[in-house]
Amino acid sequence: MSFAIILVSPARSENIGAAARAMKTMGFSELRIVNSQAWKDPAAYRVAHGATEILDNVQEYPDLAAALADVDFSVATTARSRAKYRYYATPQQAEALLKEKQQWMGRMALIFGCEESGLSNEDLELADVLTGIPMAVEYPSLNLGQAVMVLCYQFSSLMQVSAVAPSQADPQQLQALRTRFHHLLARLEVSDDQKMTDWLDQRLGLLEQRDSAMLHRLVHDIEKKLAE
After folding, report:
1. Is the preceding peptide bond at 140 cis, omega within 30 degrees of 0?
2. pLDDT in tens, 114-154
3. Tell me: the pLDDT tens digits for 149-158?
4. The model scores a pTM over 0.85
5. Which of 2, 49, 44, 60 lies closest to 24 in space, CA to CA?
């Protein structure tokens, strides 16, 4: 299983170094950086002491969509107040969800936004599930390196066991189901119902593999009936 940490437009090299150090401490090794060169600064390597190989192997991308192109399931971090229609999971809920997903998906990712503004609404729409770090007070907030440490700690158990996906499970099954539902809504002429579309997108991300397979069968039967 591959589990990438994705930093979108990080501005401070020290935070990137701290994120790399946190990743290694918790068993993560794949760092993807979107739209930033700050990781190349010597300060990042200085703070990443003991984890510089993670910086040496950074994968760069122009935008988040490109960074997620080969990812089967992703979790984005955000403030609860921004999760208007998307499904928001606590870190504990997200951990349980990812443990199920790792049984039939090969690539997962955890996404963090830039220090000043976090992730844009457009970037949040690219994720399957949203999560965040509950805090007793809103300020002072955690910096990027601290946030990466907290969530990598929460999800570190996923890196302890090498999961083998069942042969009958297709890691693209979830995305294919989402696409089929969008086409079905269009055929039913209700695709302009944005709340319905958002609800489907967010709930489909919670499905276990068996549930996803059963819904594929249901959609197939509906499509067959509509074609009569």
Report:
1. yes
2. 998 899 989 998 999 999 998 887 666 789 999 999 999 99
3. 999 999 999 9
4. no
5. 49
